C-alpha cells in the first residue's frame, strides 16, 4: 500500500524514492534490494520512506505501475501525431524502444514482477493491450489494417516489441549478451539499430496491411485484349 502525497514537495520526494527504487531493483534484484539501499540512493531518511510506502513490496508494486504509466504515455504521445494506423505503429514502437534505452529497469523490474507481484504484472500488460485493442478496432473499421482480431494482434505486437527490444536494446551488441556494451555514462543503453527497427516495422506493416483484392486481368474470351501468340 502507498500513500499519495498532499503537497508538491511530497510529490517530488515520492518521485525521488521511486527513481531510486527503479535503479536499486534493476541493479540488485528484488531480494537483494532493501529499503536502506533505496533510501540511501534517494537521499532521504528511513522515516520519510514510510510516509509514502508500507514497505519494499509496496514500493516495488508502485514502481511497476509507474513504469507502465510512463511507457504508455511515451508511446501515446509519439503516435498521437500520426495520420494513419501504420504511421502510429511506427511512432509508437520507436518511442517504446527509446524508453527502453532510457529505462532498462522496465525489462528487469517487469520480469521480477512475475514472481514478486504477479497482479501488478498482469495489470501492466493488460493496460497496454487495452489501449492497443481500441486503436486496432478503429483502424480495422476504417479499413486501415486487415481483418485481424484486435486482441490477438495487440498481444502479438506487444510480444514483438518486448523481445526485439530485449535482444537489440537491453542486450545490445552484434552478437547479443556476450557483446553487450552496457549503459553509457548517462545510464542509457544504445537505441535499437536503424536497420533492425526498419526490418521489424516492415514485418509489422505487412502483417497489418489491408488485404486488397487483386485487379482483374484481361478476360480470357475478350478478343480486344492482346494475348500470347500461339
UniProtKB/TrEMBL annotation:
Coiled coil location: none
HTH tetR-type domain mapped to chain residues: 11-71
Database matches in InterPro entries: DNA-bd_HTH_TetR-type_CS (IPR023772), Homeodomain-like_sf (IPR009057), HTH-type_TetR-like_transc_reg (IPR050109), HTH_TetR (IPR001647), Tet_transcr_reg_TetR-rel_C_sf (IPR036271)
Gene Ontology terms for molecular function: DNA-binding transcription factor activity; transcription cis-regulatory region binding
SUPFAM superfamilies for the chain: Homeodomain-like (SSF46689), Tetracyclin repressor-like, C-terminal domain (SSF48498)
Pfam families: TetR_N
Keywords: DNA-binding, Transcription, Transcription regulation
Name of the protein described by the UniProt record: TetR family transcriptional regulator
Amino acid at each position: 500500500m502507498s500513500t499519495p502525497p498532499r503537497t508538491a514537495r511530497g510529490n517530488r520526494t515520492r518521485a525521488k524514492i521511486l527513481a531510486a527504487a527503479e535503479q536499486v531493483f534493476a541493479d540488485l534484484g528484488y531480494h537483494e534490494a532493501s529499503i536502506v539501499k533505496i533510501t540511501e540512493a534517494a537521499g532521504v531518511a528511513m522515516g520519510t520512506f514510510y510516509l509514502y510506502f508500507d514497505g519494499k513490496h509496496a514500493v516495488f508494486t508502485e514502481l511497476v505501475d509507474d513504469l507502465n504509466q510512463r511507457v504508455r504515455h511515451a508511446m501515446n504521445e509519439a503516435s498521437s501525431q500520426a495520420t494513419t494506423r501504420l504511421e502510429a505503429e511506427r511512432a509508437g514502437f520507436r518511442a517504446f524502444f527509446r524508453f527502453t534505452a532510457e529505462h532498462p529497469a522496465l525489462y528487469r523490474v517487469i520480469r521480477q514482477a512475475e514472481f514478486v507481484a504477479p497482479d501488478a504484472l498482469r495489470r501492466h500488460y493488460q493496460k497496454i493491450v487495452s489501449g492497443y485493442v481500441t486503436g486496432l478496432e478503429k483502424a480495422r473499421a476504417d479499413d486501415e489494417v486487415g481483418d485481424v482480431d484486435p486482441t490477438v494482434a495487440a498481444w502479438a505486437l506487444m510480444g514483438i516489441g518486448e523481445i526485439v527490444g530485449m535482444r537489440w536494446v537491453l542486450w545490445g551488441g552484434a552478437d547479443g549478451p556476450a557483446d553487450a556494451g552496457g549503459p553509457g555514462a548517462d545510464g542509457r543503453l544504445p537505441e535499437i539499430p536503424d536497420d533492425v527497427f526498419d526490418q521489424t516495422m516492415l514485418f509489422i506493416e505487412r502483417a497489418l496491411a489491408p488485404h486488397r483484392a487483386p485487379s482483374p486481368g484481361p478476360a480470357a474470351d475478350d478478343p480486344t485484349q492482346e494475348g500470347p501468340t500461339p
